[in-house]
Amino acid sequence: MIGTSSNARVRQILILTCLCIIFLLSLIIMGLVGVHGKITFRSFTKGCVLYMSDDGQVISYNNGYCLFPIIAGAVIAVLSLIFILYLSMVIHRNDEFSPRSLSFLFFILSTLLALLAFAITAEIGIGLNKGCKLLGDQSDRCRATKSFKELWVAEICAGIAGGLWVIIMLLELFQIKSHPRGLMTSTADHVGQTTVVPHRADDQHHHRSVSLNNPYRTHPTNAAPSTAIAMDHGHKEEYTGP
């Protein structure tokens, strides 16, 4: 039991560390895409560089492609912060395991957030390459710009965040498999789990009534001497017997 508890505590610390890194990476993704996701055209209008296309001589863009990494990064940041606060309270209470229902929920959310982080990676990577290919011979110059480099860093951060979510998912799966059956509180608090059954007064009364109605009960040895009257030819004779 000691080995299981120590392994569970190590897994909790690893999960908490991964969550802190993911929170920082999500902030970096939002900042880089929000600042360097749009470029300024000759008409002094700003447009998202991701998935840019040309219709003849007119370059078309969709700012929604840049909003997706920002919104998805915000979702990951908020949920990771909630998980950090919850897991910090669990570790502070010296609980080796969370309730099984919350562990299953954490496992499912970790899987979904891993997919979301990989979706950000694909969104930035594919969209950035497509936007630079629009320039034709100037694609190398596009890759040398600051916007391309910053978005490439955001793509790498999203990929690392997705990998960390996969690690958290596996660690939580190990937590679920090693979770003792019926354990609801910390294993260190054995006294708090002890149940005291009160002795009811009606049980004492029932025991006393059964004892009094038992004809074969043993009389105490110090009982008072009994008095008997013997009749002998009309004469009364009183004696005291033991």
From TrEMBL:
Residue stretches of biased makeup (Basic and acidic residues): 232-242
Keywords on record: Membrane, Transmembrane, Transmembrane helix
Record bears the keyword Repressor: no
Positions of region (Disordered): 200-242
Compositionally biased intervals (Polar residues): 210-225
Record-annotated membrane-spanning stretches: 12-35, 67-90, 102-120, 151-174
Keyword Membrane: yes
Protein name: MARVEL domain-containing protein
